[in-house]
Amino acid sequence: MSKPHRRSHRLWLYLAVMGPGIIAASAGNDAGGIATYSSAGAAFGNSMLWLILVLMFILIVVQEMAARMGAVTHRGLSDLIRETFGVRWTTFAMLVLLVANGNIVVAEFAGIAASTELLGISRYISVPIMAAIAWLIVVKGSYVVAERIFLLFSAAFLAYPIAAYLAHPDWGEVLHATIVPRIQGNTAFLVMAITVVGTTVSPYMQFFLQSSVVDKGIGVEEYRYERADVVSGVIFSILIAFFIMLSTAATLYPRGITVDTAAQAAQALVPFAGPYAEVLFAVGLFGASMLAASVLPLSTAYAVSEAFGWERGVTRSFGEAKEFTALYTGLIVIGALVVLVPGLSLIGIMLTSQFLNGILLPVILVFMLLLVNRRSLMGRYVNGPIYNLIAWATVVLVTLAIGVLLVMQIISML
Predict the structure, then answer these.
(1) How many domains does the chain have?
(2) What's the predicted TM-score (pTM) here?
(3) Residues 6+ away with beta carbon under 8 Å from 402
(4) How far apart are CA 172 and CA 377, in angstroms?
(5) Residue 58 is part of which domain span?
């Protein structure tokens, strides 16, 4: 095969497998992610830019582990946990996943409510309608079309890099804050740091990615192309997260504006969109929230059903897959109902869900590390020492941060 033909062949192979890595990484930039990065930039300026850079390497390692397990074993993460650790540990892992994902579903509907209220539509009208549409999109098999539409809406957030540039930050300071870690010894900073970790390396993303690799039939022969998909997806999503934080740090932090509402978060886009900033933000937030609100309950129902060997699939009747259907429907109904409770802060809901993700992340990472290092499962594709160092260090440091936060809270109460 000639050199140009080899290059063309490699390009087609990459295009054939691409998707799972990009979609899984970009899922972090949903309603909760946007609220978290905006709040971090507004409250702490550039102080957390270094954390975004560190999380890029961590996310590449974690996502690559999930994709590699899918390619080598041809099994989803839930399936591997059940086969390796038994029913009790599987029940514990699935409970962790349900708590984490249930909170994220609530956050997505909070994002829908926040975006539509910016456009003058009450959440009591928009949320029930959008919940029904999210359910119908999957059940009626129109998800592929809807995914394209919502991704197009989400493209509004590509305005953040331009907005950050037009805000004229001190680029020397930005570079210094990105390279040199800054840690503040207070509870607010620690809570926000855990929240940023939770929204960037979300537990559900690993289940989704591994299942997607299995569903596409990607094996070890094509895996190097899937690895490129994972890395490129992570870099793209982290760049968007970086500029969301940078733009809010440049526009809101100097004015002492914290992000308590979607309207305040939208002000970061004023340098780019001017008077249309709220509309642009609302469109992007709506697209990201609807996309996740459609797929997250579905992927959760698949993961739990896979773990316990239940029948699953949207084409099956309720009688054939009652656990799957009840779980999928229940997540959407509960997520929508919580958002309709009067007096709840929509931004607060989003941030709380991501903080909980950060607390639960070490549990899922431990399961993944124990599985990916089993030679009986992975053969020669077990983790290398650098991957193990980064992943275990993440588990230890996040657990330590949670412990320190707990001690600080106890001391403050006393």
Answers:
(1) 1
(2) 0.88
(3) 194, 358, 359, 362
(4) 48
(5) 3-413
